[in-house]
Amino acid sequence: MASAFLKFSAIILFLGINAGLAVDQPVTEVCLGCLCQAVSGCKQGLQCDGDACGLFRITWAYWADAGKPTIDGSSPEAPGAYPTCTNDPGCAARTVQLYMNRFAQDCNGDGQIDCYDYAAIHKLGGYGCKADLPFKFHNTFNQCLAYVASYQG
């Protein structure tokens, strides 16, 4: 888990600096990394499989709800715009940020909007985030956050 998370964090940091993630970024790099780990194991090179694409397993509806972001300002209506973005780690991360900007809410009722809420929104959707997370996703996500916390002191 550690190596996949660290690779993903390095990719996102590099792409964020060099591609200019010019959106509000409510989801921290750590949270993005753990979302990636819980959803896909952060396996580089993941493409579309069924109705979900990329490291974050983003569906077309999720991408559309995020505003149909694209790479280098290309048209969201261009053929292949959805898989091109969601299979690219930087564009996929920007898609998650945009989705969270739209749907941010306190899903677990603890009075704050944080990484746990973003995990629920990502996995269950902006309108279903108060439901229980699938065990495997929840467990992997929490293990990732605990792992990172153990190295942050």
Distance between the termini: 19 Å
Structural class: mainly alpha
Low-confidence stretches: 10-20
Radius of gyration: 14 Å
| Sheet of most strands | none
Number of domains: 1
Give the number of DSSP strands.
Answer: 0
Helix content: 55-70%
What is the H-and-E element order? Answer: HHHHHHH
Structure description:
With 153 residues, the protein is mainly alpha-helical. The chain has one domain (29-151). It is 56% helix and 0% strand. The chain has 7 helices and no strands. The chain has helices at 2-19, 29-40, 60-65, 81-86, 89-103, 115-124, 135-152. Helix 1 packs across helix 2 (29-40) and helix 2 (29-40) runs antiparallel to helix 7. The longest helix is centred in the N-terminal third of the chain and has 18 residues, at 2-19. It comes from Papilio polytes. One of its GO terms (molecular function) is lysozyme activity.
Which secondary structure elements does this structure contain, and how are they paired or packed?
Layout: H1 2-19, H2 29-40, H3 60-65, H4 81-86, H5 89-103, H6 115-124, H7 135-152
Helix pairs in contact: 1-2, 2-7
Summarize the structure.
This protein has 153 residues and is mainly alpha-helical. The chain has helices at residues 2-19, 29-40, 60-65, 81-86, 89-103, 115-124, 135-152. The radius of gyration is 14 Å and the shape is globular.
